[in-house]
From TrEMBL:
Keyword Nucleotidyltransferase: no
Main location: cytoplasm
Listed InterPro entries: DM10_dom, EFHC1/EFHC2/EFHB
Organism in which the protein naturally occurs: Geococcyx californianus
Protein name listed in UniProt: EFHC2 protein
Underlying gene: Efhc2
GO CC terms in record: axoneme; microtubule
Keyword terms, alphabetized: Cell projection, Cytoplasm, Cytoskeleton, Repeat
Subcellular location field: Cytoplasm, Cytoskeleton, Cilium axoneme
GO biological process annotation, one example: regulation of neuron projection development
PROSITE patterns, alphabetized: DM10
DM10 domain sequence ranges: 1-55, 99-240
Length: 242
């Protein structure tokens, strides 16, 4: 709160019959208010301009003394920081920004191994909140095909790797390091590896890979993107300028 209220402050003894004026103030000087000593370390730009117009030569700013409580508090907080590396994976921002925003493409899959070799019409939906894809097949009436809920359930669609598909568990969001190895008996100690040494990286289809006329690989099936709705077109015009 207010330490000294607004009023005329007398000078310290033996000049207590006089009062402080603007002539008593300067940077890097000390003043005494009722027996308590204060050090002026700096002032704002308006005060500097005012004193310069009065012909006062300003002293250079002084350093602020360290606060023992702040120093001790900072030391305690630094000691609480983990020494092991930690990687924070934050997907909340993307979810909050794009929740409910879905891109929709109309696709065709021409199955060469089908009995009648007729193209299969599909609808691909790309969810911007978590970069997942699901595909639904449009089955005509009396086509002789069984109706299934989804042609591809909602998931991140990986791009087909040249060496084949990865086994479950090969690709993980985090990797660890064995600190001791076999040097200290049979003891093992693992820490999080934020550099992901030796990690297997797999590319997934993103919104930048989807466009009209593109061919994507859906688990070995070549799907052609033929068209999209107006909302998707506006999204690509706004973000990518196409």
């Amino acid at each position: 709160g207010t330490i000294v209220r607004r009023h005329r402050i007398p000078l310290p003894p033996p000049n207590e019959d006089q009062f402080y004026t603007v002539d008593h103030f300067n940077i890097n000087t000390e003043v005494i208010f009722y027996g308590r000593r204060y050090k002026i370390i700096n002032c704002d730009q308006f005060t500097k301009n005012f004193l310069l117009k009065m012909g006062v030569r300003l002293n250079p700013p002084a350093a602020r003394p360290d606060d023992p409580y702040t120093t001790e508090r900072k030391k305690n907080l630094d000691s609480m920081n983990p020494l092991r590396p930690y990687e924070r994976i934050d997907t909340l921002k993307q979810f909050l920004e794009y929740d409910g925003h879905v891109l929709r493409f109309f696709c065709v899959w021409d199955d060469p191994e089908a009995k009648f070799c007729d193209p299969r019409k599909l609808v691909l939906r790309y969810y911007l909140s978590d970069d997942t894809i699901d595909i639904k097949e449009i089955i005509p009436v009396n086509s002789g095909r069984d109706v299934v809920p989804l042609f591809l359930r909602r998931e991140k669609l990986p791009k087909y790797a040249p060496t084949g598909l990865y086994q479950p568990g090969t690709i993980t969001s985090r990797t660890v390091l064995n600190v001791f190895g076999k040097l200290v008996g049979n003891k093992e100690r693992y820490i999080l590896d934020n550099r992901k040494t030796g990690a297997v990286h797999q590319e997934f289809y993103r919104d930048s890979d989807l466009k009209i006329g593109a061919v994507i690989n859906v688990w070995g099936r070549k799907v052609i993107l033929c068209d999209c709705d107006e909302v998707t077109k506006e999204y690509y015009r706004t973000k990518y300028g196409i």
